[in-house]
Amino acid sequence: MLPEPAQNRDYPELARQIKAWARDLGFSGATIGRAELPVEVGQRLLDWLAAGHHGEMDYMVRHGLLRARPAELVPGALSVVSVRLPYRDPAARDMHAVLADGDKAAIARYALGRDYHKTVRNRLQKLADRLHAAAGPLGYRVFSDSAPLMEVALAAQSGLGWRGKHTLLIHRDEGSFFFLGELLTDLPLPADAPVDAHCGRCTRCLDVCPTQAIVAPYQVDARRCISYLTIELAGAIPEPLRPLIGNRVYGCDDCQLVCPWNRFAVPTAEADFAVRHGLDDASLVSLFAWEADEFAQRMAGSPIYRIGHERWLRNLAVGLGNAPSSQAVTAALLARREHPSALVREHVAWALARHGVL
């Protein structure tokens, strides 16, 4: 099929085809919005940064309002195709059970399989290829948590879901256990309307947060967020927050686990997101025993790989400090007491003191 000349393009029909192609490629939903956000969205971002809620994520300050201006990221962009891709592996051990077992390592469900960035972007590229074949030459770029872009705001603007009080996107038929991706294009596609929010008076996500990082509806202070503390923070985890982290060693799902809409969460059909290396039910002690080469080998292709072995041990030391006292826990910590990293040694010393070993 030859592409239509620009002046003959039926953009409503092209938009319908894009959504059908997205479904064919495994995305659970796709919507189309304008490649711009309201001024007040950018102002909220500036206010959040001014309050210091970004912590040490200095790149957010550097990018500033670029996040709210997609057309500056992709010059000439007029439309944004936003997509959802579910990631919850139905075979994974129930997260509530893992959190309740202090000897286990609780890892955010999105990180149990392979890194999602390439998976989502590869599928979006296939979507772009189909669009190019049908519409002819076009300007475009695909993203998945890979550029300064306010993904949730763009997705909410086009009705892919609504922004929950925990700041994640929620869909009434799928919950929130999904990745987002975007295809920015210079095609003037018709925009979809936003959907009504359905959080109502519910505050379960605010109430359950172990560190009270959701400081108000739709506002997260990253400096208290367990995902930030275990992933983004490069240095020592503040001592007052360590006991509150419990056995969460990479990310945190608590605000999603209590969300009523996640009773409708859709299981993934993507093999890349299947649990690897038993990470859904691994013990803190066993993971803490991994040396750097074993960490690199096992975590290759995982989102966990990017934090590196040193931060991995830091996080696990906190988990072990919060674990029930046992000979196995104490022995594991003592084995790392003289670790070459001062960061690891500090957290190990803290953990040993929690078990009465000075």
From TrEMBL:
A Pfam family: Fer4_16
Domain 4Fe-4S ferredoxin-type: 191-219
Protein origin, superkingdom: Bacteria
Catalytic center residues: 145 (proton donor)
Subcellular location: Cytoplasm
InterPro entries assigned: 4Fe4S_Fe-S-bd, 4Fe4S_Fe_S_CS, QueG, QueG_DUF1730
Cofactor: how bound: Binds 2 [4Fe-4S] clusters per monomer.
PROSITE patterns the UniProt entry points to: 4FE4S_FER_1, 4FE4S_FER_2
UniProt entry tagged with the keyword Acyltransferase: no
Binding residues annotated for [4Fe-4S] cluster 2, in chain numbering: 209, 225, 252, 255
Primary residence: cytoplasm
UniProt catalytic activity: epoxyqueuosine(34) in tRNA + AH2 = queuosine(34) in tRNA + A + H2O
Name the record gives this protein: Epoxyqueuosine reductase
Gene: queG
